[in-house]
């Protein structure tokens, strides 16, 4: 049976480096607090009038296409994972097709809205198409332009100091090789925690029970108008995160889903050559490493330099790990993510 291999990979990071010190000038925070609680020292922000989630995704895609040694016209399906799309609709899949100049091919474009686990979900979807022979060159992108939608006042500091911009992309192809390709993927969700990490408005929820109960909104908080002045005044147009609550689940679900993937394929943590965890918080990665008794050589982290880039964090980290020679042909690699939804998942593959 055919398997799915990562035939090409690339990433793109905007040039502008934003240090913790720079954030100190915008809100009541400190370099010490951010470094100690998250491990983040700096992040990248896209250029406001030149870059978008789509354009960054396209730049990463061009690198992945070149790395795979194919022409962009050979891409036969596009999957785009993001929580910070250029438009509410249409999604970034069609926009990146246009940005790459391959709209004439009329290939399908699918958008994935699974936040931090978007890349793992996307890989699993692509894997089904490749294994069954439907497509031969799937372009999978994870990209985020968080800097456009964060509250950079003290009110939003628990969220805004964490996130950064960037993009990563892969070309997925079929392989007959025994020692290469995706071995198993495991996807999970628990919608009971939906509003614990969410971007609530604008939206059609109208005070839907989750938001209402958790945040104590009154009916008048929402009216029939899609965007209200009150939404702006109450900062409902920015992401909400119950950090401690999310953290608690993340440190349980990450190890569990990694063990599930390893167990299904008949491996143990010690067999792993590289774990690429979604870069949510360095403390979460370190906790997972400790629980699974992994060495520093077995885990890749780059959140220190880029912050949390949500759907882009795994492909950026995987691309850097490959470029640095830390992921090599035949290596056993695990990609794992947890985030808003809650959704989480893991994929195990031979590079
Ligand atoms: O990728 C998506 C998934 N997301 C995650 O996995 C995030 C998981 N959660 C976390 O990473 C952590 O919970 C945070 C880094 C978000 C927060 O760290 P924490 O240790 O849980 O801090 P906290 O939210 O409990 O806040 C502790 C204190 C509070 O002050 P008081 O009430 O103790 O006086 C906050 O107001 O720190 C304050 N605080 C800040 N202080 C300086 C919150 N944000 C900041 C800030 N700078 N940026």
* CATH top level class name of the largest domain: Alpha Beta
Q: Assign the CATH superfamily of the largest domain.
A: Thiolase/Chalcone synthase
Return the CATH architecture of the largest domain. 3-Layer(aba) Sandwich
Number of helices: 12
The level of helicity is 25-40%
Structural class: alpha/beta
Count of domain modules: 3
State the separation between the terminal residues, measured CA to CA.
17 Å
Biggest sheet, strands in spatial order? Answer: 1-7-6-4-5
Low-confidence stretches: none
* Bound chemical compounds: oxa(dethia)-CoA
CATH topology annotation of the largest domain: Peroxisomal Thiolase, Chain A, domain 1
Strand content: 15-25%
Largest sheet features? 5 strands, mixed
- By DSSP, the count of extended strands is 13
What's the gyration radius in Å? Answer: 20 Å
Identify the overall geometry: globular
Question: Average pLDDT, to the nearest integer?
Answer: 94
What pattern of helices and strands is seen along the backbone? EEHHEHEHEHEHEEEHHEHEHHHEE
């Amino acid at each position: 049976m055919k398997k799915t291999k990562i035939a090409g990979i690339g990433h793109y990071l905007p040039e502008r480096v934003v240090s913790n010190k720079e954030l100190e000038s915008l809100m009541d925070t400190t370099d010490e607090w951010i470094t100690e609680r998250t491990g983040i020292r700096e992040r990248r922000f896209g250029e406001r009038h030149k870059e978008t989630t789509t354009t960054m995704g396209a730049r990463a895609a061009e690198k992945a296409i070149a790395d795979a040694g194919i022409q962009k016209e050979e891409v036969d399906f596009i999957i785009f994972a993001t929580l910070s799309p250029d438009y509410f609709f249409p999604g970034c899949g069609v926009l990146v097709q246009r940005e790459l100049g391959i709209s004439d091919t009329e290939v399908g474009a699918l958008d994935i809205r699974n936040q931090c686990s978007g890349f793992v979900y996307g890989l699993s979807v692509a894997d089904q198409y490749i294994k069954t022979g439907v497509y031969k060159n799937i372009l999978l992108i994870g990209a985020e332009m968080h800097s456009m939608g964060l509250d950079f006042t003290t009110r939003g500091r628990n969220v805004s100091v964490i996130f950064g911009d960037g993009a990563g992309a892969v070309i997925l192809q079929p392989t007959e090789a025994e020692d290469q390709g995706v071995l198993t993927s495991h996807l999970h969700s628990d919608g009971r925690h939906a509003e614990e990490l969410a971007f609530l408005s604008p939206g059609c929820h109208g005070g839907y029970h989750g938001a209402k109960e958790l945040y104590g909104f009154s009916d008048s908080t929402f009216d029939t108008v899609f965007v209200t002045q009150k939404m702006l005044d109450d900062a409902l147009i920015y992401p909400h995160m119950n950090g401690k609550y999310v953290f608690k689940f993340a440190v349980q679900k990450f190890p569990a889903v990694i063990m599930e993937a390893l167990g299904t394929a008949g491996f143990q943590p010690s067999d792993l050559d590289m774990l690429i965890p979604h870069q949510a918080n360095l403390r979460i990665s370190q906790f997972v490493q400790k629980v699974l008794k992994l060495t520093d050589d077995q885990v890749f982290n780059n959140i220190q330099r880029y912050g949390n880039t949500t759907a882009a964090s795994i492909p950026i980290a995987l691309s850097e790990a490959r470029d640095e020679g830390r992921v090599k042909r035949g290596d056993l690699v695990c990609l794992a993510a947890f985030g808003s939804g809650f959704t989480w998942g893991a994929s195990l593959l031979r590079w």
